[in-house]
Amino acid sequence: MPVISTTTQYERLNATNWGHWRSQLLRLETQTYEPSRQDTPETLEKIICHKKGVSLAAINGEQLAGFCLGAPLEAFSHVRGPAEDSLRGSATVLYAADTLVHDEYRGQGIGRELKAHQIDAARSEGFEQVSGRNRAGLANAMWRLNSSLGARAVHIIEKDYQDGIEPDLCIYYRIVLSAS
Ligand SMILES: CC(C)(COP(=O)(O)OP(=O)(O)OC[C@H]1O[C@@H](n2cnc3c(N)ncnc32)[C@H](O)[C@@H]1OP(=O)(O)O)[C@@H](O)C(=O)NCCC(=O)NCCS
Questions:
Q1: Which of 10, 71, 129, 150 is the most exposed place for a label (fewest CB within 10 A)?
Q2: Is residue 2 pLDDT above 80, yes or no?
Q3: Could you give the dihedral angle defined by the CA atoms of residues 71, 77, 80 and 85, in that order, rounded to the nearest 10 degrees?
Q4: Which residues contact 79 (CB under 8 A, 6 or more apart)?
Q5: Between β-strands 55-60 and 9-13, what pairing exists: parallel, antiparallel or unpaired?
Q6: Which atom of ligand 1 lies at the shortest distance from residue 113's CA?
Q7: Rounded mean pLDDT of the chain?
């Protein structure tokens, strides 16, 4: 049953509070993403604890309602999309890794708030662009949300997930951050 939340708060995720949210965050990651889109606990920790990262939690009391994670593009050279991105090395792009909202909290604007806060923080912390990947089909809601925030497709990556779920296509996008 959906939880109607009027009291969601947004806070930065970082090395200071990673330990506090770790178990809920890992549970949500495995509940929400199919295995080929899940990040390992080690990868999630690296992103959240990155000194120049921009990661946020949506919190309702003591419950983690959602999160969005990001760190400089340079930290993702092993990922298709960032791997081919000519801006990698310029230290100007925040790579938005995971975004999810607990299914009981969806459809209330929490995903939009998380992304809007991440974009504002990225801009004020000196990034010029945000990039990311959205799986066609399974992440259509996210692609629609990102598009409404200015995301434009840079290229389509084929057959990267290789998990037998069709379509096996992913959009690599950018959001150019205008000066506020
Ligand atoms: C994508 C996701 C984060 C959206 O979170 P949310 O809190 O439900 O989103 P919001 O209520 O803020 O809705 C924002 C926008 O998302 C889009 N959206 C949300 N749910 C949608 C749905 N079921 N179908 C289509 N679009 C949808 C709409 O464009 C909506 O726009 P609006 O604000 O004009 O209504 C959530 O659906 C989710 O966790 N999905 C699974 C994880 C995932 O695939 N993440 C993306 C890959 S990283």
A1: 150
A2: no
A3: 80
A4: 95, 133
A5: antiparallel
A6: 12
A7: 94
The Cα 77–Cα 84 span in angstroms is 8
User: Which ligand 1 atom sits closest to the C-alpha of 132?
Assistant: 48
State the pTM of this model.
0.93
SS3 state of residue 128: coil
Q: Where are the domains of the chain?
A: 9-176
- Identity (one letter) of the amino acid at 123? R
At the second CATH level, the architecture of 9-176 is 3-Layer(aba) Sandwich (3.40)
For the segment 101-110, the average pLDDT, to the nearest whole number, is 96
What residue's CA is closest to ligand 1, atom 26? Answer: 141
Is the pLDDT at 3 greater than 70, yes or no? no
Residue type, 161: Y
